[in-house]
Amino acid sequence: MNTAQDGRPRIGFFVTCIVDAMRPNIGFASLKLLEDAGCDVSVPAAQTCCGQPAFNSGDDATTRRLARQVIEAFEPFDYIVVPSGSCASMIRSHYGELFQDDPDWQARQKPVSAKTWEILSFLTDVLHYTPKGVRYPGTATYHDSCSGLRDLGVHDQPRALLAEVDALDLVPLEGNTECCGFGGTFCVKYPELSTAIVAEKAAKIKATDADTLLGGDMGCLMNMAGKLSRDGSDLRVFHTVEVLAGMADGPGICAPRLK
Amino acid sequence: MKQTSHRFSQNVTRALAEPTLKLALDRTTTLLRSRRARVIADFPQYAQARETAQKIKDHTLDNLGHYLRQFEQNAIASGAQVHWAATPAEARKIVTDICTAEGAKTATRVKSMLGEEIGIGEALAEAGVERIETDLAEHIIQLAGDPPSHIVMPAMHKTHEQVAELFADKHAQPSATQDVPALVESARRELRPKFLNADISISGANFLIADTGSFITVTNEGNAELTTTPPRTHIVTVGIEKMVPSLKHAAVFLRLLSRAAIGTEITQYTTFYNGPKRAGDRDGPERVHIVLVDNHRSDMLSDFLRPMLRCIRCGACMNHCPVYSAVGGHAYGAVYPGPMGSVLTPAMTGLKGSKDLPNACTLNGRCKEVCPVNIPLPDMLRSLRARQFDAGMASPRTAWSLRLWAMLATRPALYRLATGAANIGLRVLARGRGKISAVPLAGGWTRTRDLPQPEAGTFMQQYKKKRH
Amino acid sequence: MSRDAILAKIDRVNGKGDPSGIAELAAALIAEPDGFRATFPDRPTYERFVAKATSDTVTATVEPLSGLSALPAAIAAYLTENGLAQHIALQPRDSLTALDWTGFETAASARMDEPVAVTFADAGIAETGSLVFQSAPDAPVLLNFLPLHHLVVIRKDTILPHMEDAFERFGTLASDQQRSLNIITGTSGTADIEARNVRGAHGPRYMHIYIYCIDS
Fold it and tell me: Residue B158 has what DSSP assignment?
């Protein structure tokens, strides 16, 4: 492993456009966890978005431009870590489709894809990290976001990490592996469908005893939190890293600000 | 059926407003999902069976010309007549010509999606033949005048209460109660005499066996055998992709089909047909016609849609699809609904009339996960979007927003300025309440959902401040 | 002609490969069937068959017979127990018709609302609890589908482990095939209304299987 001179793995942190714009706390929680786990973390300034909105709209030319930007910014690192299964999967599982006819870029893309990780699975599977002395008093339920679950196999890792958190009870969610209806551009292109799907999800979340909803993807969390909030529910919604880093003491997603 | 895929959005609105539709869908999909999960958990060889099935289909598609010729030769040797149809219109003409030559008045029919695809109903009407649907669900929708809404359970959109009302209205001796067994009994009474007196039977086939010239039907009701045995002529319309090399290869799929479709190890009735009745046989048709239909399957062979030809029509993808579960099959406005239909409809009827279908999907991947032959449905739907985009079919609003977004996203410094400005704008809209209930141009989101109030400053702004 | 056009198009895409190696490739794909089918190494074939046939998904009942000659008495008991008249549609196979049916009214074909038919299964499949019926001049197909009560007779040593074994028995070449081969697993059922399972949809509602040994 090509590591920093002090032996720590060098991480390029890809914050993702949604976390950057909407909830930086997820980014800072991620940095804290990675540094606690002994990583040397950098946040390259030349990052914006992984290209997923263009990719899922069928605009492969634009996606390629963004993919090249990501590859250039992140190829120097040992690992690229992303606080989202969906964006990590875009880089890890889908970039390959973009450069099939371009051997030069394919040669650069392949190693970048291979060293890209979703943060929760990276903490567990690569760093073998266990949170220590973290407390979150509450009963939480967990939604498994689709790309992380199906493209990257993220399922047991967040549960293993959360099991180490004091005072936290994790209760099962019926249909936890079913889509929440976010789907990136889907939620704005087909708002009625997206609403119907998230309404069902919100009902299942409310049917648990949980006071907290956790997950690993800000897009999905924003969708579910937005629906729960509109329904008048006071469930707290956090990204898992916020809880693991002990940074879930502020308001949850869509919750009123405490002044 | 009349395709209405081009009105997908209106179809969705109507489906979401139907009071009992969601109830009907939930009653069925919930049971189908749990039964499937249970029967697959009880089958430790599932993963290998699935992989083997995929390999067999890929091998057969790689050698499709060889297997079609072998099948034809063996089917003819068994005494069947083999016809080829490049288009639905050709297939319909073959069927009407046979009916006319037979002087047929009535035809009993076993549900087949290929039959729906080619418009078998129209073909029979053209030939002046009364069509009698014998599958219970097809019987229900024939009485209701509905198109099918699911490929395995075409009446999935009906609650049992609705079926009871329909039977009370249409059956000669309807049941006294609304409970499901009584409704089934009522249909049995109604259909029984019709099986025995039809002139022609029409079915599809789940599999074609190249080295015996056989075709297979699977049913749970036993209606296929009751339909195809008494009439003097049996017409089979079948897609060319249903081929497998041999009986033993078919066994691999028979173990998967019923597990994926309805959560049982095998269907109650699996029948292998080999031409017309033999000398001395006391029942069976005198003539068997097999109509092999292409309808763009050979086109799909040559591009990224090729894996779709593995499909064995189990319906698992739609049973597990969040969009299908929300609106049912009719909203798709095409013969094949759900994820597999959103791939097949554009492939068979063109991108233009089905523009929404590949897009109205969250790409959550559950369809591929439950597919017994591992068809990469999300990837194919995504590729269809790319094909649409390249053909200039993106809506002006989408194209315009993508261009603006790409302009910013490929210029990180400019992007920082824009997200910084948006951060301020959204916080103004939130007015410190933690959430935003209306955003200009984002009504699709905020009509039904709040948007969180962003923190003060983007991550990149805050990070810069903290670290430098 | 559409045939030639379709085949030409397919050949254009696939290339016209060498047909000689195709059969070996196909055979290799299924060379190890135990990897992709349910196996039951610790259970005799017969036991597995009975367990599956009488499971709550297949819903048949099973009765061992001391020999084929015991069949008429067993059927008489079944009919009495179920309140049915002593009338049966009896498959016109010599081994069945040769039995002593005194006291029964028998017919060689089934009526439209036939209450009971008695047929001979040519094989059983233990993996799934299925029965195999090959059509023949003395094995009309409708007898297995029209009655409400389907009474099946099977010889114990014709119960085979898997579907593939049945194919071996009845031949795997085009020239081996009778008009039809029915693999029947339990009774006619439907889940078409709200996925609720109901028996006796179009065909039999009840299946009772008599199993006898050849040596008795």
Answer: -
Cβ–Cβ under 8 Å, residues C188 and C207: no
Class of domain A131-244: alpha beta
Check if the beta carbon of residue C201 is closer than 8 Å to that of residue B221: yes
Q: What is this model's ipTM?
A: 0.97
**What mean pLDDT do residues A107-116 have?**
98
Q: Under DSSP, is residue C207 helix (H, G, I), strand (E, B) or coil?
A: strand
In angstroms, the separation between the Cα of residue B89 and the nearest Cα of chain A is 33
- Does residue B222 contact residue C202 with C-beta atoms inside 8 Å? yes
Closest CA–CA distance from residue B179 to any residue of chain C (Å)? 10
**CB-based contact, B268 to chain A, within 8 Å:** no
- pLDDT for the residue numbered B468: 61
B326 and A196: CB-CB below 8 Å? Answer: yes
Cβ(C90)–Cβ(C97) below 8 Å: yes
pLDDT, one tens digit per residue, over A167-184 is 999 999 999 999 999 999
- pLDDT value, residue C215: 57
Contact C140 B254 (CB under 8 A): no
Asked if A169 and A140 touch (Cβ cutoff 8 Å), the reply is yes
Verify whether the Cβ–Cβ distance B406 to A54 is below 8 Å. Answer: yes
Contacts within 8 Å (CB) and 24+ apart, C15-24:
C16/B65, C17/B62, C17/B63, C17/B66, C19/B63, C19/B66, C22/B63, C22/B66, C23/B245
CA distances from B403 to A63, B57, B134, B399, C22 (A): 12, 41, 54, 6, 50
Angle, vertex CA A221, rays to CA B382 and CA B384, nearest 5: 5
Dist. CA A77–CA A89, nearest whole Å: 18
Domains and CATH numbers, chain B: 5-298 (3.40.50.10420), 400-467 (no CATH)
Report the percent of chain B where pLDDT is more than 90: 93
B453 shares contact with chain C (CB less than 8 Å): no
Question: How far is Cα B190 from Cα B174, in angstroms, rounded to an integer?
Answer: 9
Q: C180 CB near a chain B CB, below 8 Å?
A: yes
State whether residue B46 sits within 8 Å of chain A by CB: no
Number of H helices, E strands in chain B: 22, 12
Residue C18: the pLDDT is 79
Q: What are the pLDDT digits (tens) for C33-71?
A: 999 999 999 999 999 999 999 999 999 999 999 999 999
Interface of B with C in 138-167 (CB under 8 A): 140, 153, 155, 158-160, 163
B400 and B426 in contact (C-beta within 8 Å)? no
Strands in B306-455 per DSSP E: 435-436, 451-452
Backbone angles phi, psi at C33, to 5 degrees: -65, -25
Confidence of residue B439 (pLDDT cuts 50, 70, 90): confident
Position A94: which residue type?
Answer: H
Amino acid sitting at position A152: L
**Domain range summary for chain C, segments of one domain joined by +:** 44-212
Q: What is the pLDDT of residues B242-280, one digit of tens each?
A: 999 999 999 999 999 999 999 999 999 999 999 999 999
**Distance, CA of C193 to chain centre:** 26
% of chain A at pLDDT higher than 90: 96
- Of A5-14, B89-98, C86-95, which gets the smallest average pLDDT? A5-14
Domain ranges of chain A: 10-124, 131-244
| Residue percentage of chain C with pLDDT more than 70 | 99
Mutation choice for A interface testing from B12, B357, B364 by most A CBs within 10 A:
B364
pLDDT at A3: 59
> Which residue of B16, B406, B422 is in closest CB contact with A21?
B422
Point out the residue among A17, A187, A222 whose CB comes nearest to the CB of B452: A222
d(CA C27, CA C31): 6
Q: Give CATH for domain C44-212.
A: 3.40.50.10420
